[in-house]
């Protein structure tokens, strides 16, 4: 039995009370690598648009674990065999699914570490924790990687309808105040079952799944890909690009020791896999390292870095135009030339102030993995075919919008 001082409950604004299920989960939560997630905002710079979006990866991880516990209870009640060890492994896998996120979450992915995404880093962190806890996370690691024999346990961690997505939609809509993102996460979980080792949804839960997919699509346009969020994200990415450019050239830059390591070096995936010190350095990075540096760099001698950092600190964001068709090349070139002239930039430096890009929104991708609806005769049908409400031709389709970002002073 776990020690009584490890049987904690946590008061969560979305779900009420969250219970830590056992001593090992408690010890993992207490580990410094996991505690770092308290200092990484779930939605990066989204609070520049929605000021209350201050919640963290730590809160999201606990919420996803809570939903995993509910899903295990529901599936067991329906006769699905899940042992206590498997339940613990699933709890740990979902708890640690985002432990590889760096400062400002998705915003700086591939910026601080260029050839590793947060999922690669999560695998390295989980493997490291497994060694530290005497192989106590081996099952969790297998479930996370999808190598465990019961496929549906991995689907609860990573799929079109996993506990990660259920929590981030519920949590992000709560903290942004965007009602379009509200989903029936509790009903969705109660409608889950397993057929031939595949996680599926009972037929009477189809309307909740329809709402889930529509809410996800709306949250992308209204929150995650909001044009002001895009402007803030691009500003942070560009100023970090400038800082790395200067750092790799040996220009003096204020930075915390771990942050300085990444500014002046470009470690590869191989470096992380062969030298444990790189993972240790990354484990010391969080939002505070980056933003403290940004505040100091606002007074740096490099005019581009200092200007970008002042804009970030003071929320002086660029204009963003978004449309469904590519921008006229002549118009793009005109904006680029005016930006160069306005800031007296070289053509090579124009990219710090001017961006022409494309963003995509795909709420449901059956080619990646399907959401299957179980009929009365136990037949399975893809949600895009089973739904009467969703437009089958549109819902699985990627919707692209073209983005043009440039200084507001450019007319």
Descriptive overview:
This protein has 411 residues and is of the alpha+beta class. It has two domains: 4-226 and 362-400, Hypothetical protein af1432, CATH 1.10.3210.10; 227-359, Growth Hormone, Chain: A (Up-down Bundle), CATH 1.20.1250.30. The chain has 18 helices and nine strands. Strands 3-4-7-8 form a four-stranded mixed sheet. Strands 5-9-6 form a three-stranded antiparallel sheet, sandwiched between helices. It is globular and about 70 Å long. The mean pLDDT is 93.
Write the layout of secondary structure elements.
Elements: E1 9-12, E2 16-19, H1 23-30, H2 32-35, H3 57-77, H4 84-95, H5 118-132, H6 138-145, H7 151-157, H8 163-176, H9 185-190, E3 192-195, E4 198-202, H10 206-224, H11 227-248, H12 257-264, H13 269-274, H14 276-282, H15 287-297, H16 303-313, E5 319-323, H17 329-343, E6 355-361, E7 372-374, E8 380-382, H18 383-386, E9 399-406
Parallel strand pairs: 4-7
Antiparallel strand pairs: 1-2, 3-4, 5-9, 6-9, 7-8
Short description:
This protein is α+β, with helices and mostly antiparallel strands. It is built from 18 helices and 9 strands.
Question: What attributes does this structure have?
Answer:
single chain; 411 residues; alpha+beta; Hypothetical protein af1432; Growth Hormone, Chain: A; 2 domains; four-stranded mixed beta sheet; three-stranded antiparallel beta sheet; 18 helices; 48% helix; globular
């Amino acid at each position: 039995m776990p020690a009584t001082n490890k049987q904690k409950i946590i008061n969560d604004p979305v779900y009420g009370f969250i219970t830590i299920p056992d001593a090992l989960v408690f010890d993992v939560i207490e580990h410094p690598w996991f505690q770092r997630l308290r200092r990484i905002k779930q939605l990066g710079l989204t609070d520049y648009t929605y000021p209350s979006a201050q919640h963290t990866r730590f809160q999201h991880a606990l919420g996803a674990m809570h939903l995993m516990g509910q899903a295990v209870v529901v599936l067991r009640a329906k006769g699905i065999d899940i042992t206590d060890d498997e339940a613990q492994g699933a709890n740990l896998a979902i708890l640690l699914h985002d432990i590889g996120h760096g400062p400002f979450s998705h915003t700086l992915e591939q910026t601080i570490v260029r050839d590793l995404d947060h999922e690669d880093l999560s695998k390295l962190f989980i493997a490291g924790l497994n060694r530290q806890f005497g192989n106590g996370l081996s099952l969790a690691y297998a479930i996370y990687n999808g190598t465990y024999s019961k496929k549906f346990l991995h689907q609860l961690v990573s799929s079109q309808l996993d506990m990660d997505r259920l929590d981030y939609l519920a949590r992000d809509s709560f903290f942004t105040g965007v009602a379009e993102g509200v989903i029936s996460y509790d009903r969705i979980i109660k409608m889950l079952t397993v057929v031939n080792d595949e996680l599926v949804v009972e037929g009477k839960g189809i309307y909740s799944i329809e709402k889930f997919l529509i809410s996800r699509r709306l949250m992308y346009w209204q929150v995650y890909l909001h044009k002001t969020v895009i402007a803030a994200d691009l500003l942070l990415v560009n100023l970090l690009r400038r800082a790395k450019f200067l750092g790799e050239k040996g220009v003096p830059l204020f930075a915390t020791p771990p942050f300085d390591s990444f500014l002046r070096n470009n470690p590869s995936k191989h470096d992380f896999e062969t030298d444990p010190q790189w993972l240790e350095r990354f484990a010391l990075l969080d939002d505070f390292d980056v933003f403290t540096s940004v505040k100091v760099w606002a007074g740096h001698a490099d005019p581009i870095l200092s200007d970008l950092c002042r804009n970030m600190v003071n929320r002086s964001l660029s204009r963003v135009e978004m449309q469904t068709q590519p921008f006229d090349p002549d118009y793009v070139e005109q904006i680029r030339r005016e930006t160069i002239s306005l800031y007296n930039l070289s053509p090579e430096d124009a990219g710090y102030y001017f961006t022409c890009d494309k963003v995509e929104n795909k709420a449901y991708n059956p080619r990646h993995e399907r959401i299957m609806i179980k009929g009365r005769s136990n037949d399975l049908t893809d949600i895009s075919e089973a739904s009467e409400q969703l437009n089958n031709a549109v819902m699985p389709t990627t919707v692209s919008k073209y983005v043009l970002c440039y200084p507001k002073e450019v007319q």
